[in-house]
Write a structure and sequence with these properties.
The structure holds two protein chains of two kinds. Chain A is an alpha/beta fold. Chain A has nine helices and ten strands. In chain A, strand 9 and strand 10 form a beta hairpin. By secondary structure, chain B is α/β, with parallel strands linked by helices. In chain B, strands 1-3-5-6-7-11 form a six-stranded mixed beta sheet, sandwiched between helices. In chain B, strands 8-10-9 form a three-stranded antiparallel beta sheet. A two-stranded parallel ribbon of chain B has the order 2-4. In chain B, strand 9 and strand 10 form a beta hairpin. Classes of the chains: A alpha/beta, B alpha/beta.
Chain lengths: 278, 187
């Protein structure tokens, strides 16, 4: 099935994922009309590539035809995380120079998380010297989300390579942080505790994001995702989390859980208003 | 009461992960252990931009839990922060564990975490006076001496006040409770 949208972002990723799944592990990624790519879209593409590669396949990529789309893809910087996992209808577009538009980091172990967060935060402070409160919020979210990957994405160190990535992008009206892995997901993590074994994906999302539940019984554990959701709420941010076949949207004062195309792991999108940084 | 300071900024400007919090807790407990009984350790958050819930839980809430369970008798802990905002995740973790810790923010103090109203009332009374006995507390609050004594004992177990024995002028001893802070309470 060919699905070629002009955008690959947090709003449209579900349609792309459903289309890619049809041909997995050799999904056809039609970027020929691409005009908009956000960090969330970039990360699901990277995860899809890694999944396909592990399943013995690869991405079949139709590259953007327009100058704008080619420049967008080149500046995204994602090619370095796709190397060896795709075949395209031409050479991958190269950036004419300058910095990548999306800051991408790969999380391999908990030990390196602090350095990654410091690096991204310092770059933000250089860019927005008056944006300390916004930077603080993003740093707080990054610290918890990035360490969740080594701590929860493969809780029993089973045959699951969680492969976690983070991405940050500045846009006209907001800053967008995405963190994604292809580990066991919230249901898989909570399910290691017999009390939560019966939860489905949507229930696991609610348990983690609304009730602050953790797979650990020890008090003091868990609550990080709920806390981030509350911080986004307080600061007019938009928050989206998908895990397995469920997703939670938080915008304004409302949140809604819905069914989505099954995909392993946890993928998070946080958008904070740009005014917090200026 | 002797006082020492432990600066959390030694671990960075943005702390941190759970593993980093565990390492910080070991150092914090070692530091506390080296202090003599009757000492107060002020954990200073100056210089921090972020104190994450994971780090705060391992480094501070777990240390408070151990002290409240009886570890390192006679050592006291409080936290000093340049802002309330920095304390939010720590407070949430302490509430989850039903523990309490004194915090100094500017020239005010407040209790972080969970403290039942009857203990909170006794703590406010003691902090306003600096020190006092169960007899004096019972007279102020209009409760029995036994009830006042239970309050001060519980605050002492939670390491929110320091209790010492002093000789009475007419012979024998009496228990005095001493406040860890002598500042204005946060509104």
């Amino acid at each position: 099935m060919i699905y070629g949208a002009d955008r690959l972002d947090v709003e449209s990723a579900e349609r792309s994922l459903a289309a890619w799944e049809e041909d997995f592990p050799r999904p056809l990624i039609d970027l020929s009309r691409l005009r908009h790519l956000d960090p969330f879209g970039a990360l699901v593409l990277v995860l899809e590539a890694r999944r396909a590669q592990e399943a013995g396949g690869f991405l079949r990529v139709l590259l953007p035809q327009g100058v704008e789309g080619r420049a967008l893809l080149a500046r995204s910087g994602i090619e370095r995380l796709l190397t060896g996992a795709y075949r395209a209808d031409g050479p991958w577009p190269e950036a004419p120079g300058g910095e990548a538009e999306i800051d991408l980091v790969e999380v391999k172990e908990e030990e390196g998380v602090g350095r990654l967060v410091d690096g991204l935060s310092e770059r933000l402070l250089d860019r927005f010297p008056l944006g300390e409160s916004g930077t603080r919020l993003l740093a707080q979210a990054m610290l918890e989300l990035l360490q969740n990957i080594p701590q929860h994405a493969s809780p029993e160190k089973a045959d699951v390579s969680p492969f976690g990535v983070g991405a940050l992008q500045e846009s006209e009206d907001h800053l967008h942080l995405a963190v994604a892995d292809k580990g066991v997901g919230l249901r898989g993590s909570l399910g290691t505790n017999p009390r939560f074994r019966e939860l489905d994906d949507s229930q696991a999302l609610e348990a983690a994001l609304v009730q602050g539940t953790s797979r650990f019984d020890r008090p003091g554990r868990g609550g990080a995702l709920r806390r981030i959701r509350e911080l986004m709420l307080r600061n007019a941010g938009r928050f989206f989390v998908r895990s397995g076949s469920g997703a939670l949207w938080q915008a304004d004062v409302e949140w809604v859980v819905s069914a989505v195309c099954p995909f392993p792991g946890v993928q998070v999108s946080i958008r904070l208003p740009r005014r917090l940084f200026e | 009461m002797t006082e020492a300071t432990f600066a959390l900024s030694r671990y960075g400007r943005r702390v941190g992960t759970r593993a980093e919090g565990k390492r910080a807790r070991k150092e914090l407990l070692n530091f506390l252990e080296r202090l003599s009984e009757g000492s107060l350790l002020v954990v200073d958050l100056a210089g921090l931009d972020v104190l994450s819930g994971s780090f705060a839980d391992e480094a501070l809430a777990e240390t408070v839990a151990r002290l409240a369970a009886g570890a390192l008798p006679g050592r006291y802990l409080l936290v000093r922060s340049p802002s309330d905002e920095l304390l939010e995740d720590l407070e949430s973790k302490l509430k989850g564990r039903r523990l309490a810790l004194l915090a100094l923010v500017g020239k005010t103090w407040r209790v972080l975490g969970h403290l039942p109203p009857h203990l909170s009332q006794a703590l406010e009374w003691l902090t306003a006076r600096g020190e006092g006995t169960s007899q004096e507390l019972s007279e102020t609050l209009g409760v029995s001496v036994a009830g006042a004594s239970v309050r001060l004992t519980e605050l002492s177990r939670l390491r929110l006040v320091h209790r010492v024995q002093k000789p009475r002028s007419m012979g024998g001893i009496e228990h005095w409770a001493t406040s860890l802070v002598s500042l204005k309470k946060a509104p």
